Amino acid sequence: MTARVLGRTGVLISPLTLGAMNFGRHQDEDTSIGIIHAALDAGITAIDTADVYEQGESERIVGRALQGRRDDVFLATKFHGRIGDDPRHAGNSRRWITRAVEGSLRRLGTDHIDLYQAHRPDPDTDLLETLRTLDGLVRSGKILYYGTSVFPAHQQVEAHFLASQHGLIAPHTQQLPYSLLVRSAEREVFPVVRKYGVGVLGYGPLAAGWLSGKYRLGAAQPESARADLIPGRFDIGADHNQRKLAAADALAALAEENGLSLIELAVAFALNHPAVSSVIIGPRTAEHLDAYVKASQVVLDAAVLDRIDAIVDPGTHFLERDTGVDTPSLQASSLRRTA
Predict the structure, then answer these.
(1) For residue 220, what is the enclosing H or E element?
(2) Which domain holds residue 180?
(3) What is the CATH number of the domain that holds 215?
(4) 24 dihedral zone (left: phi>0; alpha: psi -120 to 50; beta)
């Protein structure tokens, strides 16, 4: 794979990043380690996990798999989600970050984390406190770079403004969902991150399975563990999913017209935007991994990209939940009027 530069860092990483969310959950340890090793052998040089994935089990598995190969990998993990039952063991405060990073270092079996990311914004913590804490971790050598995940454009701007005002290192990366069906980032986030030299790690190139090729007009509802957990996002009989289903079907037909699988079209599209440094994938089998690697070699021409834009308008999405953003200003408590 042809390496790409991660934002303004100068670091070269592979166009595909191995996502470790399923390790320890849908895949046992030996299967997970086998996929990690196969990904490294295929040329993938970046791995992304989080402390909250199976309450640290994913990090532990990744750490074991990287024994003897740590220097070959750009290793990313995240903090924010609750660890255990104590509500204090979560968030973006200095108190929690300084504890969370030690836990991640221990489970990963390493003396530094290449990229440490705030998994979600924390409305209860002053952003400057978070930035100061992460700046300190970079200067101490415990982390090399830091980033954010699904931070809206205005918080990206705020973070860079605060960093400039207070002499701090600014965020290096932003992680967000980006796919043929979830294009919201094109409207505001991509222009902002490009202005500040922030590298984007896009996740969900298959839109949680909607772009797997199984969602077609007239076909039966595909079986899915995610659909069982979050039926509102997947029920093809629901009114709000009908337009998404029609788009997925049209995109599958477009892929077929061009001699591609829908997976190839989807991954190639996610990699095409100049703001995107790498796309996070979550293969559950060696066959899935091979399909992703093959898809990463596909280049889409302008005619195909124009056809895509005619099916899904740039800068749009079909369901707010698909954006990964939990916007405080749209919560019921914020919408209610007070005297």
Answers:
(1) none
(2) 4-333
(3) 3.20.20.100
(4) left
Residues 105/73, Cβ–Cβ less than 8 Å: no
Asked if the structure places residue 124 within a domain, the reply is yes
In a domain, 125, yes or no: yes
pLDDT digits (tens, 9 = 90+) for 118-139: 999 999 999 999 999 999 999 9
Pairing of strands 16-19, 46-48: parallel
Q: What is the dihedral of CA 41, 44, 46, 50, to 10 degrees?
A: -80
The tokens describing 208, both together, are 């949680």
Is 53 a residue of the active site?
yes
The pTM of the full predicted model, rounded to 2 decimals, is 0.94
Angle of helix 286-295 relative to helix 29-41, nearest 10 degrees, comes to 30
Burial class (CB in 10 A: 0-12, 13-18, 19+), 259: exposed
**pLDDT of res. 193:** 97
Question: Which residues, listed in sequence order, are joined to residue 76 by a DSSP beta bridge?
Answer: 48, 115
In a domain, 338, yes or no: no
| DSSP-assigned beta bridge partners for residue 174 | 148, 200
The Cα–Cα gap between 265 and 281 comes to 14
Number of independent structural domains in the chain? 1
Selecting among 53, 116, 146, 203, the annotated active-site residue is 53
Q: What is the reported pLDDT for 186?
A: 97
Structural domain contains residue 301: yes
Question: pLDDT tens digits, residue range 267-305?
Answer: 999 999 999 999 999 999 999 999 999 999 999 999 999
CB-based contact 160:295 (threshold 8 Å): no
Smallest CA-to-CA distance from 45 within 256, 293, 229 is with: 293
Phi, psi at residue 311, to the nearest 5°?
Answer: -85, -45
